From TrEMBL:
Superkingdom of the organism of origin: Bacteria
Keyword Transmembrane applies: yes
Name recorded for this polypeptide: DUF2931 domain-containing protein
Keywords: Membrane, Transmembrane, Transmembrane helix
Annotated transmembrane regions: 6-25
């Protein structure tokens, strides 16, 4: 019958429309679910308690040394980032990277998806061979605030698109001393901002034989027993390479803890000012702070940054415009004495416990004796801010640097002018020429307070260029 044919066609059309609506709905749900999905990777850093030249560091660097665990058969011995419903987004089974301004992602520790809800870490600490655990809910809003409000960067105008890309998608975990853990959010261009800190707890004295067999894929009972009972790396290294420190360690006068680093995490109300008698300070800067944070503050964020508390600075990069020469110059200054090799290379040129950093901290503490890590969330009034002032001479060289508040000036005697160069106009307007300009323009005006056993200069100091961004 003719009407049956129309019923068939009607059924086909209705079926197609129904499927289209269903899959359209599913696609919309997927888009809603994934609108805040990003590419993420994980990196780790382990705190350094010495400042050893690069060529000797692999042998004698004194640092926190941990191994993240992931034992498939034991959920309580697994390290991962996860959602609240328990879905593991990314897992970790080792740790890498020393205290550095570079943090390469762990192999295999990357994913595309939502911001993690939780961080679950279980690790072996080589200090005492104990097993430690941290299971915390992450401050997702803060992570996304950093990611979405990064502001302009010094690479934005670079002609090479690979340089312009600066994606904030690295979850960087720093391990300090007595199992104090800080999470940062890092970027492609090695920028870093602090998210939160926690204290891990000890859950076992050692790995069990079963853990060792599965973790290291061993089946020899002798090797398993040797691995279970082996001595950690830290104490033998102190005893062999740091004899004076070893005596202090045995006497209980020194321990590998996080108290000094917590001081460096303290935020104070201060702002930067540069005075150039032959030109104009452009107001923008990029600072490496003592708490490891490293990022640029350019014109779009200057006013907001002036209201914010900041950790004490380690390295200041800024720009001035020389009127007589009509050229833009790059200025780089360190606020404490450092070994020249450490300044010349792209490393973090101080160590946890460095008395030079403590001396600088005391300058800030003088004006703000009640500030500590616990007061970081308490804002300051505009009139409470101090000024870190850098005075340049007619040649663009630093002549003075001091912290000033209410007419009182505290000189930063440990500071020195590391580099001064013209800005290369073909590389985005912020990068300096990296050759034919002088390094180490001035010397610190105070004695280096570092322990010579823990911080030393290279016997042979290379003159290759290590200036990096």
């Amino acid at each position: 019958m003719w009407y049956k044919k129309y019923w068939v066609w009607a059924f086909v059309v209705i079926t197609i429309l129904t499927l289209a609506l269903y899959y359209g709905y599913k696609e919309r749900q997927r888009m809603i679910e994934q609108k805040d999905w990003y590419g993420w990777s994980v990196a780790t850093m382990m705190a350094s308690y010495s400042n050893i030249p690069y060529e000797d560091a692999a042998r004698s660097e004194l640092s926190t040394y941990i191994q993240l665990l992931y034992i498939p058969s034991r959920p309580d011995r697994q390290s991962y980032f996860a959602t609240n419903d328990g879905k593991q987004l990314v897992t970790m089974d080792y740790a890498d990277n020393w205290w550095s301004l570079r943090f390469e992602p762990l192999l295999g520790a990357a994913y595309y998806g939502p911001v993690p809800d939780r961080m679950h870490l279980v690790y072996l600490n080589e200090r005492d061979m104990g097993i430690y655990k941290l299971d915390v809910e992450l401050p997702k809003e803060k992570i996304m605030e950093i990611r979405n409000n990064k502001g302009r960067g010094i690479t934005d105008l670079h002609p090479d698109p690979d340089y312009r890309r600066d994606d904030w998608g690295k979850l960087v975990i720093a391990f300090v001393g007595d199992d104090y853990i800080t999470l940062y959010l890092g970027s492609t261009r090695q920028n870093l901002k602090e998210v939160a800190s926690w204290q891990a707890t000890k859950v076992a004295d050692r790995l069990t034989p079963e853990d060792v067999a599965e973790l290291y894929q061993l089946d020899d009972p002798v090797r398993i027993e040797e691995t279970v009972n082996r001595e950690g790396h830290v104490e033998p290294k102190i005893k062999k390479f740091f004899p004076k420190l070893w005596k202090q360690y045995q006497a209980g006068e020194w321990r590998m803890d996080a108290e000094h680093f917590k001081m460096m995490q303290t935020r104070f109300p201060w702002n930067l000012e540069v005075v150039d008698p032959t030109g104009d300070w452009l107001g923008e800067y990029e600072i490496t702070y003592m708490n490891l944070e490293h990022y640029a503050t350019l014109s779009d964020r200057l006013e907001q940054h002036k209201k914010e508390l900041k950790p004490i600075p380690l390295k200041i990069r800024t720009w001035v415009f020389d009127k007589p020469l009509q050229k833009k110059y790059y200025v780089e200054i360190y606020t404490i004495p450092t070994p020249k090799w450490a300044a010349f290379r792209h490393s973090f040129p101080t160590y946890v416990g460095d008395p030079n950093a403590t001396y600088l901290y005391k300058r800030f503490e003088y004006f703000y004796p009640n500030r500590s890590l616990k007061t970081n969330d308490i804002p300051a009034k505009p009139e409470e801010f101090a000024t870190l002032k850098i005075i340049l001479d007619n040649n663009g060289k630093m002549s003075e640097i001091y912290l000033e508040k209410n007419g009182i000036k505290l000189p930063l005697e440990g500071a020195y002018h590391y580099y001064l160069a013209e800005v290369d106009p073909d590389h985005g307007g912020y990068y300096p020429y990296d050759e034919d300009f002088e390094y180490f323009l001035t010397e610190p005006k105070m004695k280096d307070l570092s322990d010579p056993e823990r911080s030393r200069e290279e016997v042979w100091f290379p003159r290759e260029n290590y200036l990096e961004f």
